[in-house]
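Hey, resending since the last one bounced:
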Amino acid sequence: MAAGLRLGPLLRYVDWETGEHATVWVEADRPCTAEVRCLGAPPGEGSGKGSGQGPGEAPGPAAGDAEAPGGPSAVSPKGAGVSSKGAGGSSKGAGVSSKGAGGSARTFQIEGHHYALIPVSGLAPAASTEYEVLLDGRRVWPPADSPYPPSVIRTPAIPAQSVRVSFGSCRWSAPPARKQDPIGPDALDTLAERMAAEPESERPDLLVLLGDQVYADATSQETQRWLATRRDLSEPPWTQVADYEEYTRLYEESWLDPEVRWLLSTVPSCMIFDDHDVIDDWNTSASWVAEMRATPWWRERILSGLMSYWVHQHLGNLSPAELADDPVYAAVRDAPDGTEALRAFAARADADPASVRWSYRRDFGRTRLLMIDTRGARVLDERHRAMLDDEETSWLRDQALQAPGSYDHLLIGTSLPWLLPPAIHDVEGWNAALCRGERGARWARVGESLRRRADLEHWAAFPSSFEELTALIREVGSGPLAPSTVCVLSGDVHHAYVAEPSWPDPAPTARVLQLTCSPVHNAIHASMRVGFRFGWSRAGRRLGRAMARHGRAGRPVVRWDKSGGPWFGNQLMTLTLNGRSAELRLDQTATDRTGARLLTVDERILTDGP
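The structure tokens again:
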């Protein structure tokens, strides 16, 4: 029987140094050779609805087994190289394609599933190139009846001056077609529909997904019915997922959504996990970890969560050079069945988080993106709590300060916001002080209970880490070689806002902003809406300061206020960075008689430099 495409394709990495390379992720239903074959046409012959540009219709020759330089190879133990710094840019207006480009890879096996991360080479810069996916030589993508434009790989101009980045977090899977959505239209679905009707030049160059891409602890009714065919849901972990196979169900439910499937096939993506990708409150405290490890089901859950994240999300974050240096990827690919090699890696990541790095760096022309792991890299000793361990902190500092003057914009991707509503920041600092014993053992127990029930685990709940990140941002943003902007991109809190700090002298020369956008597709209780609004109010600030005094918590070195929001709904933010200028747009989903659409609710110029 011929191999079939089970999941994907996802266009993950696109090279912004030379514009010649990309990676495409797929899951097949059996072992096979997976191939990406690019199709070409003379410049100016567009294809696809509303395109007016890009790849042509004539198929190119088979790509063979071309691989990116260094070949492919996986997650990095700490010390592995970061993605190479490069220049690039949007292919807006490009009429070039990359006829004959492509690549292939043999699938690797994990828990009976078959995956490939296909290295694509031979692409042309400033091009929009249509591609197809073949398994053992048989075309499986795009579907013959697809209502969407062709999937394309858009490569940047070299050198590039601009990049458009759309970002958000917290996407609970949309219900099947023709079923009413109780939480409103999905922002990614709606973005895909808009993209399909607009010119390619209007598309984002990058999609940044900041956590909770799947909800392992809040499964849909359809998934629960499937789980019930496998095990007794009255036994732990109940309607949550239990093992690797059940995690794969979550990714299928999310990524087989037709709109999202096409979107992820044609817009490159960078991803990082948050708690729900594994479990609510993951690594919130040392006592939480101890309690979870004492349960009979947790070990399989955490290993499966880390394994599935590595396969479905993390691999695609890496450049071909990083993949070539990754011993875990090499071991998985070289084995007839890579399950045990990956389980051993996941066990090490759980037992010794400091031995593994999930954080990574990508450069997009003169924009640098640092994606930070704020879950697995934590130090949970109450007397020395830190969001990042020492080596992770050093890595972040090194990447932010490397080659000053080489980038115009620094984006720090952290699923958890750096700047919260001030009252909530103070409550989290108060709670952290109680938990470390500032008011005695009884208050410490109260603090731990409150921390878990109210999710008090953002940067504010790790005061020393908050101060270190603040100091780093100030250092990066100061001096003659400072970037134009430093933007912290976050999600998690199920609403959106723009916050800006007020610095004591000497203030940074860069404009520094907290840009929070969540959810992509989820809901928020009315009481939480009231609480978040109260957190920005004068009364809220006074209450927060009083609680901080009670806990003997120190005051932050900066003050801040919101300059936009809070906005509630399913939404995406988009940054357009061009030279040293920066523009921000917030789009929310709305429904009218014609169906779901994206509505721009805020648009602003952040900087208007040359």
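The domain at 5-608 is CATH 3.60.21.70 (Purple Acid Phosphatase; chain A, domain 2).

Sorry for the duplicate.
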